[in-house]
Amino acid sequence: MKxxxxxxxxxxxxxxxxxxxxxxTVDNIGRDAALNIIVSGHWEKATKTISGNEDELxxxxxxxxxxxxxxxxxxxxxxxxxxxxxxxxxxxxxxxxAKEMKFxxxxxxxxxxxxxxxxxxxxxxxxxxxxxxxVFKRKR
Length: 140
Prior knowledge:
Blueprint: H1 2-19, H2 23-39, E1 45-51, E2 61-63, E3 69-73, E4 78-83, E5 86-97, E6 100-103, E7 106-110, E8 120-127, E9 130-137
Antiparallel strand pairs: 1-2, 1-9, 3-4, 4-5, 5-6, 6-7, 7-8, 8-9
């Protein structure tokens, strides 16, 4: 009988503890988990596509990385483009939530549940009819 009471008491304390977490705390846990996945390892490919402009010359797709470059997101708010281990250039970024990233001055929605998709990171920004998409890829 004492074991059941102890078990029920422990379960009650656990339930109260979990329900007392604020939405902000839960969101930060998700953001931190996503950020940890993004900063671990390096990304080998980054493609930026701009579409929806009335002027077709402004609708472009470009590779942000050369063949021998990678990009590494660090927790210092910088994404470092590297070639043979040396920094070539940097981009500023921040991740206010698990579903949003500010990259190089523009705010993007993260399309994936990054905790589930560790090989692709898709950022999308809609500004009026113009859609800007950046797809980062890495090998598994």
